[in-house]
Amino acid sequence: GPIMSLRLGHVPTIVVSSAKAAELFLKEHDAVFATRPITQASAYLSYGGKGVAFGQYGEYWRRMRKMCTLHLLTLAKVTSFEGLRRAEVEAAVQGLVDAAAAREVVDVGERVGELIEEIVFKMVIGKGKEEDKRYDLKGVVEEAVILAGAFNLADFVPYLAPL
């Protein structure tokens, strides 16, 4: 049929293979299925599910989301960093112009990563990464991407997890 229930190890899983059944799950009963599974990676990355990205759906998650949307991600707050973003982009472009004039080979992906890292550092910490070397933001993001994307058998067979 259009709905199938499976158990992947200890994880109950529902497979929906029709648009009408998917609409029931995603529109009419969305609150019932809104929670996210707690994996070892998500527990590690979000201090046991305390963050917005990996938190369990419920009152705490709704309050966290509200705090983010009303205080951290408002138009006024984002706009307040426009000058900082503009200055950093201009400096990065000037760096590319200088490198082109010197006929240097440039890894644009690396430069864009450095630009984003510098902007985030200044927005979150208030200093550039060269001014405050205590934080390895790039390393943290790389670790998070690896952990979030890695398959972990212990998430499905809990007795394989470390004690």
TrEMBL record:
Sorted alphabetically, which Gene3D superfamilies does this protein's record hold?
Cytochrome P450
One Pfam family, short name: p450
| Keyword annotations of the record | Heme, Iron, Membrane, Metal-binding, Monooxygenase, Oxidoreductase
Localization: Membrane
Q: Where are its TM segments located?
A: none
Domain of life of the native organism: Eukaryota
Gene Ontology MF terms: heme binding; iron ion binding; monooxygenase activity; oxidoreductase activity, acting on paired donors, with incorporation or reduction of molecular oxygen
Q: Which GO terms describe its cellular component?
A: membrane
Which cofactors does the annotated protein need, by name? Answer: heme
Q: Which InterPro entries match?
A: Cyt_P450 (IPR001128), Cyt_P450_sf (IPR036396)
SUPFAM superfamilies per the UniProt record, alphabetical: Cytochrome P450 (SSF48264)
Task: Give the family this protein belongs to, as stated in its UniProt record.
Answer: Belongs to the cytochrome P450 family.
Q: What is this protein's name?
A: Costunolide synthase
